[in-house]
Specification:
Blueprint: E1 3-10, E2 18-23, E3 38-48, E4 51-61, H1 97-111, H2 117-132, H3 164-170, H4 180-192, H5 198-210, H6 216-223, H7 230-242, H8 246-260, E5 261-264, E6 267-270, H9 276-292, H10 297-307, H11 316-328, E7 334-340, E8 343-349
Antiparallel strand pairs: 1-2, 1-3, 3-4, 5-6, 7-8
Helix pairs in contact: 1-2, 1-10, 1-11, 2-11, 3-5, 4-5, 5-6, 5-7, 6-7, 7-8, 7-9, 8-9, 9-10, 9-11, 10-11
């Protein structure tokens, strides 16, 4: 077997180069240096008979090897028995219903796969709130919005084509600030393009509203378009909501619920859309605006979205955005009593508990 020399180094850390000599087709083990939590790249450079090759692999240093966290939520009633894991630890948390549904949502979207723009941003939003509002142990997601930039706009997948729907939904979050200029120019161009259809303009106005642009008159004008499809009405309602025009959102919430809404405790859902996936997406987006205006059906719509994921898309970002709204409206303190080890414990929970 030919002699081989392999050099390993951490690209992101100076002074980590380590060289070993062995034989081709024989495994070599390299001890990694102590690294802080974060994302790194390992470079392996091999030399055999004067021929060189290099391989660079990404690695993540984490505080835990946990890859999936499963959460569930139930409204507490007298005699409630929590569901416990049969093969592991179970953490039972009591608190405001809105706050706990937000917590459950953030846990679910944080641990979901995130290859798409909306999935990556949802995980980032979840990280932020789990850390800031729940003091949970997380590690930073590797979300980089620049990976989705195209020559004209922003794509749903890296190296994909423009996707104005999900770009508009993502716009305005602090994690999207590196591509703010790209989004602003693109959305403005779409609104001003006479060849843009109402669907494209509705999403562009949503994006501009989330970027803080003064598009309220434009949104009013498009809402007045005769025979405007209701899924676009929902999009424009999200634009109104992004601008803080909640009193204008309320009648749209009522209209959508009356025309398309169904309620069966603990769920609320809309049958707005041609396909089942369309209806699930509409329900998730309805949850955002309903939660933000304080309508109780937003809670049930988010629960329905978490329990009924679409088949050919995801609603992770919608769920994270709805959870943010619920978290902001979780204002009522609660009191609970429970028995543990034969003792009764009573505790008053404040807004942030």
């Amino acid at each position: 077997r030919d002699a081989a020399t392999v050099t390993m180094s951490i690209v992101d850390r100076a002074g980590t180069e380590l060289t070993k000599t062995g034989h081709a087709l024989t495994a070599m083990n390299f001890p990694l240096p102590t690294l802080p939590v974060g994302n790194y790249h390992v470079r392996l450079r091999a030399t055999v008979n004067g021929q060189n090759d290099t391989l660079v692999l990404p690695i993540s240093v984490v505080t835990s090897t946990l890859r999936h966290s499963q959460t569930s939520i139930a409204l507490l009633e007298a005699g409630e028995q929590p569901q416990l894991s049969s093969d592991g630890d179970t953490q039972v948390v009591f608190g405001n219903a809105n706050r706990l549904l937000a917590y459950s949502t953030f846990q679910n979207v944080r641990w979901a796969p995130h290859h798409r723009l909306d999935e990556g941003l949802a995980a980032t939003i979840a990280d932020r709130h789990l850390t800031d509002d729940f003091q949970a142990d997380t590690w930073p997601s590797a979300f980089d919005p620049n990976a989705y930039v195209t020559s004209t706009g922003v794509a749903l997948y890296p190296f994909g084509s423009d996707d104005i729907e999900y770009a508009a939904l993502a716009a305005g979050d602090p994690a999207m600030s590196p591509v703010r200029g790209q989004l602003l120019g693109w959305f403005t161009q779409v609104v001003n393009n006479p060849d843009s259809n109402t669907d494209q303009v509705s999403y562009a106005l949503l994006g501009l509203a989330k970027l803080g642009q003064p598009v309220l008159p434009d949104v009013h004008a498009w809402l007045a378009v005769p025979n405007l499809p209701d899924h676009e009405r929902l999009t424009l309602a999200m634009a109104l909501d992004a601008m803080g025009a909640r009193e204008e959102v309320r009648p749209i919430v009522t209209y959508l619920l009356q025309r398309y809404g169904h309620t069966q405790a603990p769920y609320t859902w809309l049958t707005l859309g041609a396909s089942h996936d369309d209806q699930l997406v509409a329900t998730a987006r309805y949850a955002i605006i309903a939660a933000d205006v304080g309508d109780s059906t937003g809670f049930g719509a988010l629960r329905y979205s978490l329990s009924h994921p679409p088949k050919d898309t995801t609603t992770n970002l919608e769920a994270a955005l709805a959870a943010e709204r619920l978290l902001a409206t979780a204002s009522n303190a609660v009191s609970i009593s429970y028995r543990l080890g034969g003792q009764t414990v009573t505790k008053q929970l404040k807004n942030t508990d």
